[in-house]
Amino acid sequence: MRKIFLLASIVVMLVFAVTADRAIGKQSLGVEPVAPQQEEEPRDPLTDLVVPYVAEWAASPHADVTAEAFIHWDADDPAEVPTSCAKCHSTSGYQDYLGADGSEAGVVDAAVAVGEVVSCVACHNDATMDKTSVVMPSGIELTGLGAEARCMECHQGRESKISVDQRITDAAVETDDTLSASLSFRNIHYFPAAATKYGTLAKGGYEYDGNTYDGNFAHVDGYSTCTDCHNAHTLEVKVSECAACHEGVESVEDLMDVRMAGSLRDYDGDGDMEEGIYYELQGVSELLYSAIQSYSTTVLTTAIIYDSSSYPYFFADANGNDVRDDDEGGYATWTPRLVKATYNYQTYQKDPGAYAHGGKYDIQLMYDSMMDLNAALGDSAVDMSAMSRIDAGHFAGSEEAFRHWDDDGEVSGSCARCHSAGGLPTYIKEGVNVSEPIANGFQCSTCHNDLVEFTLYEVESVTFPSGATIDAREYMEAEDTNTNLCMTCHQGRESGKSVENLTAGIEADATSDKLRFLNVHYFAAGATRFGADANGAFQYPDKEYAGFFEHVDEAAKCSDCHGAHSLQTNEATCVECHSEIEDSEDIHDIRYNFGDYNGNGDDEEGIYYEIQSMTDDLYAAMQEYALATVETGIVYESHSYPYFFADTNGNGEADADEAVRTNGFASWTPRLLQAAYNYQYVAKDPGAFAHNGAYILQVLYDSLEDLGVDVSDMERP
Description:
Number of domains: 3
Distance between the termini: 86 Å
């Protein structure tokens, strides 16, 4: 009986949908269309119950019988939607592409007669029920999807970086500024929301080689897919649900004013970091359009103008009035550089919801397009000095800290705590981590356990890699501090203890295949701050080291000195005591003690410079020691793992062919390894001079002394 009931319900919906489509078909024949009957809602013939969602669908763009998306081919001969368009502009074409009609999946086999819209059976059929992946125009398959896969088949665009590159390659031009009749504007097509949302994971935009880009914008749990944010039948945005987190949002227009705490950068350079991301995108797009027009007249010979409502969108502005006149045709003076820039401009223009779908990706695309155009514009270049491309570190989805695992498909359990959106909450709750989905930076829920009150997760204490357990509140005499939460990640992954254990029992200057470089990892600020108590650096036996750097009460917690979201230094906090501070660079000049630590005769330079000088001395001492003791040169490259490499050509520098993993330095002795670990420790905490300068100076002094450097002119704090 249940099957009969379900079948009857489906039949009613099919009849309603087909009736609507047939009514639309009459329009193409010059007959007045009959709108779907709304006075009497469709009912199941067995139960007389109302069939759900039909009325909502009938009022949606998917059922709009007058829309250009469905009548564009009415005047063609024959009047049919071609196979290249039918997938997304007809129900039959979509079913054909899915293979729901029994045909081969992944291709539309036949044109479709005009008169159809996107009706119920387009999205509700056997093929869509189990659909969990989508192949994007780039050829990349996005997997692990839910119901949003149905939406993404059409809302993905029709071009990609791959296809744009292929067209440029086929043109066989000599340079990016070479004109070619084989080039033309490449149009991503309308509403490519999925391409925007999935960013570099889909490569829908034109991504410039050598740059990295944001991935999937996941927003927050429960609002990370198409149907989480849009009603699946009316297609309207669920504005009332947005208002739960975004105060003052009452309409779709209000969403344009939304700006998250993870977006504290001035992307368009207008000085306003409170305007909504929508307006940041608008500002960037206006600057890009200016650069496109400047390129067309400065580098090329024909002015260009854009018309969003007329194909092919870019036209030759023959009379130079900056208005598209009726007699002005499509732009025909194309170079590779212009093709790339106009493609990215259009990518943003054709996704009106880009600011919510993944605006940072579009900002990066347009920013890079401007940079590329500027390379050819010379004195006519657009001023980008005040603009920003990348977010603060916790939200920098384009950077290695979050993009490293793209090829793996997940963030490994050993890295998930600090390099995924959900890893930190899992660790706080369970004390361990498993693999996590690839992230596009942190989310609000990474640090906040309540997304209404935005309270922080409470961390009672932090266990450092050395085994030391520290509760920052005991040191700061504070009841409420976020320092423990910050230090859960900012503690490093190795310690002086791990170096000590690895080198134990091996003669100081003897090489051993048991030795390998130990990398403290990035930004171990918490370990630096607590000095000897955390034992982050390698501490030489029989030496005493500074413990917790207390500073002052007003600058005790991490968030006292750093913006919790911007991560930038709070200069205002420093100025209260250090009146000479005017900007973040001035902090390098701060000095809170007066020894001549590096022995250069200047006891007034900032602690930052004392540390820099001693770090340089340590690197030179390591290179000299390596040549003299193991007869293998050593060089350092801060951006390439494993950081220390064999200097095969003996020039003292890490050349491109040397700074590769297979050439990692392998002739370690305990003495060299201990010094190299400390060198890396200091290098990977760029704020060490402020976090605990005395501890760092002691570590550097002892490392130099152990390598045999004459430290008689230096001072050890």
